[in-house]
């Protein structure tokens, strides 16, 4: 049995929707200590609605203790999934993924299933996770590698105003995890189609999430995932910008919004 390691953000409810019918173990980093009953209730209520209103967005924001602009885009354009990251039966809910949790995790029955892990996280996994899964860890990145690495990659790249770079990097990538930041061998990547038909940079990020989740689902359906020979030949070099900001400031957000609209010719 494979493992999925992800977080309790609203956008990961779309990942759970994609993978909910697969037999998987889930490790959920619940850093904001979200309440499962609260999430159950809000998803049950809003999944029945054909159109999500601003009032609904406010309810989601309270339940999730915050929503990003891409998450608001997803809710308004795709609705609210019935389930969320904490919905699965085979789940371990943890605030952190550091060594103390890992040592306790090794006493759990699901830790014996170390055939491979798919991850979608805003944190870097420590080396002991790589060792545990014998390096069979695949990450989904919401941009096309190697053209935009790190956190908030496509937004920060957009803020530079380089239209050609944004066109190359808008999309998603699956790659093996190594000790670097988005430097592992690339398995698959897809560009975002109709990029300039999207209204905002937040729509681009939201669509990139969905594309990343689709790549994860397709990968699990392969006959032999995590085999280390399913990679592409891609050169890394000067076209591999790294964005490591953990504080994606309002100033940079506004710059990304402005530059995206300028690139669209608005």
UniProtKB/TrEMBL annotation:
InterPro entries: Formyl_transf_N (IPR002376), Formyl_transf_N_sf (IPR036477)
Pfam family, one: Formyl_trans_N
Formyl transferase N-terminal domain span: 124-192
Tree of life domain: Bacteria
Protein name per UniProt: Formyl transferase N-terminal domain-containing protein
């Amino acid at each position: 049995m494979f493992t999925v390691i992800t977080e309790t953000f609203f956008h990961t409810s779309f990942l759970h929707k994609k993978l909910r019918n697969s037999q998987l173990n889930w490790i959920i980093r619940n850093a904001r200590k979200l309440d499962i009953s609260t999430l159950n209730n809000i998803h049950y209520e809003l999944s029945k609605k054909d159109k999500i209103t601003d009032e609904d967005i406010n309810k989601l924001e309270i339940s999730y203790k915050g929503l990003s602009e891409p998450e608001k885009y997803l809710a308004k354009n795709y609705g609210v999934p019935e389930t969320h990251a904490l919905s699965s039966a085979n789940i371990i809910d943890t605030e952190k993924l550091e060594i103390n949790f890992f040592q306790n995790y090794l006493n759990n029955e699901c830790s014996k299933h170390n055939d491979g892990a798919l991850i979608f996280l805003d944190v870097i996994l420590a080396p002991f996770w790589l060792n545990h899964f014998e390096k069979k860890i695949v990450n989904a990145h919401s941009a096309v590698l190697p053209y935009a690495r790190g956190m908030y990659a496509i937004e920060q790249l957009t803020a530079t105003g380089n239209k050609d770079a944004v066109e190359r990097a808008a999309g998603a990538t699956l790659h093996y995890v190594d000790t670097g930041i988005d430097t592992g061998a690339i398995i698959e990547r897809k560009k975002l189609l109709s990029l300039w038909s999207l209204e905002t940079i937040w729509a681009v990020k939201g669509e990139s999430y969905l594309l990343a989740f689709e790549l994860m689902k397709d990968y699990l359906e392969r006959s032999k995932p995590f085999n280390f020979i399913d990679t592409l030949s891609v050169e890394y070099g000067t076209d591999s910008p790294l964005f490591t900001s953990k504080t994606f400031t309002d100033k940079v957000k506004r710059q990304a919004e402005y530059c995206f609209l300028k690139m669209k010719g608005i």
